[in-house]
Amino acid sequence: MSALALARAFLFVPADRPERHARALATGAGGVIVDLEDAVAPERKAAAREALAASFAALPVADRQRLLVRVNAAGTPWHDDDCAQVGALVAQGLIAGVVLPKAERAADLSWLAGAVGPRGVLVPLIESAAGLAAVDELAAGPQVLRLAFGNLDFQADIGLACDADEAELVPVRLALLLASRRANLPAPIDGVTPDWRDAQRLAADTARARRGGFGAKLCIHPDQVAPVHAALGPSADELAWARRVVDAIRASGGGVVSLDGRMVDAPAVRLAERLLALEDQPAL
User: Fold this and answer.
1) What is the Cα–Cα distance from 186 to 196, expressed in whole angstroms?
2) In CA terms, which of 4, 95, 123, 197 is 20 to 30 Å from 146?
3) For the stretch 235-252, what's the b/e string if a residue is b when 16 or more beta carbons lie within 10 angstroms of its beta carbon?
4) Cα 71 to chain centroid, rounded
């Protein structure tokens, strides 16, 4: 399983600010999303796209495998050129893959997979009612790494006016979680907390993400990375329990065992193994 499949914090950085790319990687984010869409003005998109290869070539090889590029959405004037460029970047080993905003059609995802080549991973960003309706097809698409939720754009698309707790979006988040499970994908990536200065809101949002089965969160500022990474990781008590489960199963030779008066069954073993896998994703 790739590091991006287990990453907990994905940090956005503008594509047209190459001096920030290395700094974003240095935050400890498991994934860095270099953004050609919302972060770049229309008149700057072409120049930003063409400058990516030089920016990424200057980075260490290991860091490049944490890089994703968010292209402009299908149907925009920049989409085809974006996809051609990221395909070249993937082929050169300069990035791991692509984030597709406003993902709504399996055909668009299949076309993108062809454009970036078999080495590139894809992250569909569900941001609309149409994207939600197609979520199972998108999750099952070729080369899909994980689903991600664009919570703010989704609200705008269907006319919601959510409070900070976004209670109205619980069914949408559950739909992404279930689609991910049906497609055997890693846990999905939750949306952003827009006020990066509000540490209390970030903590509440990240706790909600974890309770809801999400394994990662999109970040818009470097200060959000460490709290998100820590909050989405296993606690000391969870790790201690997981180690005891694995040790007990090994000692039994793989048979059914009792731990703390409870039978340890296959779901408990899978949970223990997942928690221990998350422990292997330290902050960088």
Assistant:
1) 26
2) 197
3) eeebbebbeebbebbeee
4) 15
pLDDT tens digits along 231-255: 998 888 888 888 888 888 887 776 6
Choose between 76 and 163: higher pLDDT.
76
Name the pTM for this structure.
Answer: 0.90
The least confident of 34-43, 231-240, 273-282 is 273-282
Cα angle at 191 between 99 and 205, to 5 degrees?
155
